[in-house]
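Q: I'm building a small set of examples for a reading group on sequence design. Run inverse folding on the following structure and report the sequence directly after it, with nothing in between.
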């Protein structure tokens, strides 16, 4: 019976992968905007693809369902991810498994205090040309020229080396020796950091934190999950994720997600959420002005919208609802708010500030119920 269910699941996964691969090009999608049935089929294929991706990652990564979901949503929203958690929680394993499931060129950069920027971006070397007998300059690409890059323990490198990622993350290109070289698309940076040990670390500057679409906090495993980890790693051979989707299809899925509609009343709430983090703003709720030193830039609003669109699509909605914004706000804003000394002294973290904002920033008179109903349809 178990073998029969396993065979049925594999057949369903294969059908979902085939449907995802059959997704049309962006040009075909643009040409068929009036075809409701075609749009519904593509959205259903997107959801099936997400389910298969999550299941493939689950073959290797035990538990951490919310972390896996947020990471996959960020990738489909074309954003970089910062994973924060103590050692041993599977952050590196998650990224490596994603590289296998996404069928993308993968590279790992171990950040250390002696890491140089050229170790990331590559360098120009002098070589002997055997045909002419002369010397020439050749560029040797660094590990940044992959499509899924793991920046492991990113806060252990110096700011000079950390800054080598800035151009790649924002512009999707690398400039070395006066030449700008584009990076292949899609391109993702997934960084990890340990929030506990601070000796010998260099905290990321705010400008770099702002380049991460989401900051995902990796929690401790539960009792059941620890037991499953032991069973999987000490008793039986470990499983590997199989390739599910390649780069071109990821780009198609990203383009499809961008077509999701954001109703005006939902977008207005997102705007007011961001403005409520600005000191002195009339949108800031009373009592929070002593907790926020620097607020969120428009890039934070863009992160909420991009993430909420993917969340709405995988939940079967064609428009963003307030619930999608609530789901996206915490990982999208927690790294973009700088607390005051009073907040730090009172033990108020950025997560608590975002939760207070979600509760106290009004959604708009007479719009809350209608918005949720519209998003649920």
């Amino acid at each position: 019976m178990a073998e029969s269910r396993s065979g049925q699941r594999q057949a369903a996964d294969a059908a979902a992968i085939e449907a995802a691969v059959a997704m049309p090009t962006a040009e075909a999608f643009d040409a068929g905007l009036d075809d409701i049935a075609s749009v519904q089929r593509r959205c259903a294929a997107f959801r099936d693809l997400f389910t298969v991706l999550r299941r493939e990652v689950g073959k290797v990564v035990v538990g951490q369902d919310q972390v896996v979901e947020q990471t996959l949503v960020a990738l489909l929203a074309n954003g970089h991810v910062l994973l924060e958690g103590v050692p041993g929680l599977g952050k590196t394993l998650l990224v490596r498994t994603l590289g296998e499931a996404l069928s993308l060129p993968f590279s790992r950069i171990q950040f250390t205090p002696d890491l140089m920027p050229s170790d990331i971006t590559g360098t120009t070397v002098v070589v002997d040309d055997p045909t002419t007998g002369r010397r020439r300059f050749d560029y040797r690409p660094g590990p940044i020229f992959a499509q899924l890059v793991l920046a492991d323990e990113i806060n252990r490198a110096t700011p000079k080396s950390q800054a080598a990622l800035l151009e790649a993350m924002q512009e999707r290109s690398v400039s070395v020796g006066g030449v700008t070289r584009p990076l292949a698309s899609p391109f993702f940076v997934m960084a990890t950091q340990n929030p506990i040990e601070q000796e010998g670390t260099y905290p990321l500057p705010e400008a770099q934190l702002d380049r991460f679409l989401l900051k995902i906090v990796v929690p401790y495993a539960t009792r059941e999950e620890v037991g499953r980890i032991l069973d999987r790693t000490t008793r039986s051979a470990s499983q590997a994720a199989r390739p599910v989707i390649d780069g071109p299809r990821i780009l198609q899925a990203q383009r499809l997600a961008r077509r999701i509609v954001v109703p005006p009343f939902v977008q207005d709430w997102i705007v007011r959420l961001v403005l409520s983090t600005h000191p002195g703003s009339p949108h800031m709720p009373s009592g929070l002005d002593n907790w926020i030193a620097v607020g969120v830039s428009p890039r934070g609003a863009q992160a909420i919208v991009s993430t909420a669109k993917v969340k709405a699509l995988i939940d079967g909605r064609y428009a963003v609802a307030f619930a999608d914004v609530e789901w996206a706000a915490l990982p999208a804003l927690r790294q973009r708010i700088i607390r005051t000394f009073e907040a730090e002294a009172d033990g108020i973290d950025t997560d608590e500030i975002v939760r207070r904002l979600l509760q106290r920033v009004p959604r708009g008179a007479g719009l809350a119920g209608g918005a949720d109903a519209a998003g649920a349809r």
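Residues 304 and 329 are 6 Å apart (CA to CA).
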